[in-house]
Amino acid sequence: MLRPDPWRTLDAQPNVVKLIEGLEARGKARGQVRLRRRFLRFVPVSRGGHVLEVGCGSGVVLRDIAAMVGRRGEAVGVDPSRTILDAARRLSRTAPGARMALRHADGAHLPFTADRFDAALAITVILHVADPLAIVREMARVTRPGGRVGLQDQDFGMLAVTHPDRALTDRIMQGVAAAVYPEPYSGRRLPRLLVAAGLQRVRVLTDFFQDTTLEPWTKTFLERRAENAVRYEVVDEATALRWLDGFTAEVAAGTFVLTMTYYGAVGTKPA
User: Fold this and answer.
1) Residues 181-222: pLDDT tens digits?
2) What predicted TM-score, i.e. pTM, was given to this entire model?
3) Do residues 265 and 202 touch, judged by C-beta distance below 8 A?
4) Distance between CA atoms of residues 109 and 21, nearest Å
5) How far apart are CA 40 and CA 69, in angstroms?
6) Which of 90, 150, 71, 94 has the alpha carbon at shortest distance from 117?
7) CA 92 to CA 94: how far, in whole Å?
8) Which of 154, 165, 183, 264 is the most exposed place for a label (fewest CB within 10 A)?
9) Mind listing the domains of the chain with CATH numbers?
């Protein structure tokens, strides 16, 4: 039985501040900075462009977009959470580049006229939405002919991490993903969504987040997996704690590796 994905009802979560802090911590991780900026160049996000980000969260990606389009460009973000938009406004006050506009909106019902943007992007969003195709079709509607619609998402079927107990690691990682997400392998499905929404000349960029030192965001990610494994009765608390201790041993031995695959897909809106 699927459990509710907390990102679908963020404002109702008791730990919303912690979740927002986690987004910002992920945004600062060196590997995450590299892979998202590489994807923005792949789209490409150009100087002077008018760019929409659907599901902008606390504005990590939107701040990068604003810097890339410059003062003559436009960076617009929408999100269904008022709480996270408040955080995005606060964090964007001193960000360089274009002035950012933030709107409260559902990605399946965007408050913009057709052909409004040069590019519409959804980054680490599709995994969390109930009807991905509705979102992508709306993104295509508000993108001008010849403009780009870009999606990037992690794929939990393509995640590798070193641990002394491989079977237990697979049980926890796969069990939690299957309990929360209707499509935990969403990354590899992105090109199909773009084609179904009528986009043409679809291109794919496969990229990786890698950590060999157990950075703060990686540590938080694994701790959250352990916590959810207990909550969803994948394992008991003692087993989850033993699993986390195994990563401490890997780091001490200098053998820790976590690699997460991200798929990026970009399509062009036909005339």
Assistant:
1) 988 999 999 999 999 999 999 999 999 999 999 999 999 999
2) 0.94
3) yes
4) 27
5) 11
6) 150
7) 6
8) 165
9) 6-268 (3.40.50.150)
